[in-house]
Amino acid sequence: VQLYLPVLLGTTREGNRSSHVARYVAARAGERPGIESGVHDPAELPFGNLVKRVSKTDPLPRGVREFVSEMARADGFIVVTPEYNFGVPGALKNLLDHLVEEWVRKPFALVGVGGRSGGIRAIDNLRQVVTGLEAVVVPTSLSVHSVKRTFGEDGPTVDKEDLDARLERMLADLEWYARALRAARTLDPARP
Ligand SMILES: Cc1cc2nc3c(=O)[nH]c(=O)nc-3n(C[C@H](O)[C@H](O)[C@H](O)COP(=O)(O)O)c2cc1C
Fold this sequence. Notes:
Bound molecules: flavin mononucleotide
Structural class: alpha/beta
Oligomer: single chain
Number of strands: 10
């Protein structure tokens, strides 16, 4: 069965390095049999600071409508986010806050990007937020440390084998949960 596992980029910062990682992760995901992926960049989405959630907004601007239907058809998500001041960027939190049922009972794989910390605190911060979305975080996450030194526009520049091995493991984990949860949502769509 074909699975759609899009990447959500966590930042709108001009010249951000996380987008190199996001593109690389989406490309590796899309190479796996039966997987469709792609990057959604919050800078290209017309979301301002939250005024109303999309479910309460009528009519929805066209770009938002398209994004919402993409998230609705997704079987799971890969978030690639930098760590800003020990947490996730406001742009990512704001984006997640705009939607509700599109996230519910779907798996999230988390990729943190940072300097020495490798975005570990952004990953941990996001774990809590994803729980609030009534979604689940898969057990395997990926930390990209020293991104300025280790990643270029075309992918990893050092320790590529190690990164690829960790990435493939995370993607395999996400796929397993995406299939399992899709089957479970189909069997029993009710929410308590
Ligand atoms: C506002 C801001 C806050 C940051 N805070 C952290 C931080 O708490 N921990 C960290 O490891 N790096 C931090 N960084 C550095 C980022 O890790 C660095 O910019 C890296 O390139 C990834 O972010 P980027 O995708 O915006 O490029 C911060 C950068 C910015 C712009």
